[in-house]
């Protein structure tokens, strides 16, 4: 059952992200030959300083694919994996055994970047339709670091314009198995205000 935080309590916003998640799931299903699907669990807002604790990312090595939106209606979308799930996805997409070397090679990075691109475009296309304003994400880029450090890199710029993160919690599944992936969406204050105005109009 989807849960919306009190500040975002709007059926329109829930419909928006449900539609975006549905589009993303369809795209992921095509991209992974039917292996991966996703469903929306919750939309919530929280202070930036609480995000790391709330997501319980811990101090394990994380892999992240990030996309950014420039301008007033900007923001950042992050797709995070633990090492096991990130490596397994890359191996599946490349149709080769899971790599065991410490460093990610260029093909593995490219496979995850394209995954982030597919998810990001699905979400941004839904936002574009909803806001009637074109949102163009940057090319995805690959980051790797430890737990809170990964998240801090993404939140650093966000803190200049907004002190709140909007989180779309999702469940990713490979067949019937839940995967340890997270999608984190961080709109700028301008985009957040536009979303709020649209959902309360």
From TrEMBL:
Enzyme Commission code(s) on record: 3.-.-.-
This protein is called: CheY-P phosphatase CheC
GO annotations under biological process? chemotaxis
The record's GO molecular-function terms, alphabetically, read: hydrolase activity
Looking up InterPro entries in the UniProt record yields: CheC-like_sf, CheZ_family_phosphatases
Q: Do the record's keywords include Hydrolase?
A: yes
Provide the alphabetized UniProt keywords: Chemotaxis, Hydrolase
Q: Which domain of life is it from?
A: Bacteria
């Amino acid at each position: 059952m989807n849960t919306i935080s009190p500040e975002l309590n709007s059926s329109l916003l829930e419909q928006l992200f449900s539609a975006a998640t549905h589009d993303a799931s369809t795209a992921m299903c095509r991209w992974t030959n039917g292996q991966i699907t996703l469903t929306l669990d919750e939309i919530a807002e929280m202070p930036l300083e609480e995000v790391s604790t709330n997501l319980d990312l811990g101090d394990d090595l994380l892999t992240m694919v990030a996309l950014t939106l420039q301008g007033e209606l900007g923001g950042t979308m992050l797709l995070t994996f633990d090492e096991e799930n990130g490596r397994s996805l890359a191996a599946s997409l490349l149709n080769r055994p899971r790599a065991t070397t410490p460093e990610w090679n260029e093909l593995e990075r490219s496979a995850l970047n394209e995954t982030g691109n597919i998810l990001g475009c699905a979400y941004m296309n839904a936002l574009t339709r909803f806001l009637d304003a074109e949102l163009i994400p940057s090319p995805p880029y690959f980051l790797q670091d430890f737990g809170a450090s990964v998240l801090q890199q993404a939140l650093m710029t966000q803190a200049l314009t907004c002190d709140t993160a909007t989180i779309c919690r999702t469940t990713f599944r490979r067949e019937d198995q839940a995967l340890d992936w997270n999608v984190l969406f961080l709109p700028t204050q301008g985009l957040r205000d536009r979303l709020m105005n649209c959902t309360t109009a």
